[in-house]
Design brief:
This protein is mostly beta strands and 377 residues long. The strands form 7 sheets. Strands 10, 11, 12, 13, 14 and 18 form a 6-stranded mixed β-sheet that branches. It has helices at residues 11-22, 85-93, and strands at 46-48, 53-58, 63-68, 81-82, 100-107, 114-120, 127-133, 139-141, 149-153, 175-179, 182-188, 195-201, 211-217, 222-224, 231-237, 240-246, 251-256, 265-267, 269-273, 280-288, 291-298, 303-307, 327-328, 331-333, 340-347, 350-355, 358-359, 365-366, 370-375.
């Protein structure tokens, strides 16, 4: 909707139009004026886009919201260190730390402020929370009831089924990344091959169906189409653009970006396997001393540094190959960082980690939680 072309029917309306031009209201994906309330049913995966725009994955709402944070300046300090971040956020929203669930962490590339998504409470009555953390330790709640935003609904979001082993709706969005003007969104869909990777142009208009994915799961010894991508990064291999995706138990799969078309069924190529009994949490690609690496945080294996100089040279791991332990790209375990629950890039030389006091594996982590920057190893 173009607010400058609205008919002026009264002096009061004219004043409102002038204000709308100076401070544009957000527009939803259907072209209608959005409410100032972001309308989030959940706040899960986070990713930053242009000009400090924060994308929020709302799995329970089957949608993605783009929030105008207005956060375009900061100290650029690489020293973020907040102990008991879960306790501080819980106090800010008026609950016990045990009633707060931290979902994701992202860094604004402009201001270098850290953003945390969480749920206030547990179960269906939990409410979404997003907090900005400054290097001074100051915490600020984003005003989700008044923030400027755009929202797009996912055409292929799975239906909610709270009675199942795991409600597929909670995995509608498992990871996101903003690449070349579009938001890439991994997760579950309502299609025959329910593992999906979507590409949504921004600013939002509509979201087409995602690409349906199949992989050879070398730890399980079978083809899989129902397992969602857990974490991914855009990655260039031999001058071709790929999505490098990691799955539970822990195959690493490359998917050509050129194959990502709405509704298409695409088979990814498994090029490494970190081993079974593990869930990858986050990945950070980086270059150090002239070599390429990917830092991977895992639920059971800790943090590992994958050697990525020759990713195009590893042979595909395909049927009927079964990998009992690990295969493909070599990696080093990073013993100096433990109990990492979330990992995200801070700058070319540092990452931000959220660590817990204990727990992990496929079970819940236990607090208190700390957030800090670390040097990329």
């Amino acid at each position: 909707m173009d607010y400058r072309k609205l008919a002026v029917v009264s002096i009061a309306a004219a004043v409102l139009i002038v204000l709308a031009v100076r401070h544009p209201a957000t527009v939803g994906a259907d072209g209608d004026q959005a409410s100032v309330n972001a309308g989030l049913k959940s706040a899960g995966v986070l990713a930053f886009g242009p000009d400090g725009v924060l994308f929020v994955g709302d799995s329970m709402g089957g949608a993605v919201s783009a929030l105008e944070t207005g956060d375009r300046s900061g100290s650029q300090s690489a020293n973020v260190d907040v102990k008991g971040i879960d306790e501080k956020i819980a106090a800010l929203v008026g609950v016990m730390p045990s009633d707060l669930l931290i979902n994701d962490v992202a860094v604004n590339p402009i201001s270098k402020h850290v953003y945390i998504s969480a749920a206030r409470g547990r179960g269906p009555d939990a409410t979404p929370v997003i907090v900005r953390v400054e290097d001074s330790g100051k915490l600020t709640l984003l005003p989700l009831d008044t923030i400027k935003h755009e929202t797009v609904s996912l055409a292929d979001a799975p239906a909610s089924n709270a009675g199942g082993r795991q409600n597929p709706r909670t995995q509608t969005i498992t990871d996101m990344a903003f690449v070349n003007g579009s938001l890439m969104v991994a997760g579950m869909s309502n299609e025959e091959w329910s593992s999906a990777l979507r590409s949504i142009p921004y600013p939002f208009k509509t979201a087409s169906k995602g690409t349906q994915l199949q992989i050879w799961h070398s730890s399980h010894g079978r083809y899989e189409t129902q397992a969602p991508v857990r974490t991914f990064v855009p990655y260039t291999i031999d001058n071709q653009q790929y999505v490098l995706a990691a799955y539970t138990c822990t195959p690493l799969v490359k998917i050509p970006v050129s194959d990502l078309k709405a509704g298409a069924q695409v088979k990814g190529v498994t090029i490494a396997d970190l081993g079974a009994g593990n869930q990858p949490l986050d990945m950070v690609p980086y270059t150090k001393d002239g070599h390429q690496y990917i830092l991977i945080a895992n639920s059971s294996f800790g943090v590992v540094k994958l050697h990525a100089d020759n990713m195009g040279q590893y042979k595909p791991i395909d049927s009927p190959t079964v990998v009992p332990d690990k295969a493909g790209a070599p990696y080093d375990k990073i013993a100096s960082v433990t109990n990492v629950r979330h990992l995200t890039q801070f700058d070319a030389a540092h990452a931000v980690v959220l660590t817990s006091a204990g727990g992990g594996g496929f079970g819940p982590a236990t607090g208190p939680f700390n957030i800090q920057t670390i040097a990329l190893p």
